[in-house]
């Protein structure tokens, strides 16, 4: 599940931005975040095992990817304008913010419940 969540966020990043360096950076950040979560889980009192932390990692990244999926039209428009050289102030509509945040929080809560 962790590999799926990492590949999902990398695929979505590449589909939206089409920048290979950014996609590689997202993969590297994801792997480091996964290892950091495992280390943090072991440092807690009482310690959490790697399986529990991987479940939380997987669900939070999947929630972030699903939350960003709802805003893809906004990001496509932003990307196309940037490539054309058009600079304007973009404001992410409230419905997108609510969708992104609620999806992320729901998946985080599910991950914590399933890891316990």
Range of strand content = under 5%
Amino-to-carboxy terminus distance: 17 Å
- Count every helix, treating DSSP H or I runs of 4 or more residues as helices: 5
Order of helices and strands: HHHHH
What is the radius of gyration?
16 Å
Task: Give the integer mean of the pLDDT values.
Answer: 89
Structural class: mainly alpha
Helix content: over 70%
Biggest β-sheet: count, sense, barrel? none
User: What is the approximate shape?
Assistant: elongated
Annotation, overall tally of beta strands: 0
Uncertain runs with pLDDT below 50, 5 residues or more? none
Task: Sum up the structure in keywords.
116 residues, mainly alpha
Task: Describe, in plain words, how this protein is organized in 3D.
This protein has 116 residues and is mainly α. The protein is built from five helices and no strands. Helix 1 runs antiparallel to helix 2 and helix 1 runs parallel beside helix 3. The chain is elongated, with a radius of gyration of 16 Å. It starts with a helix and ends with a helix.
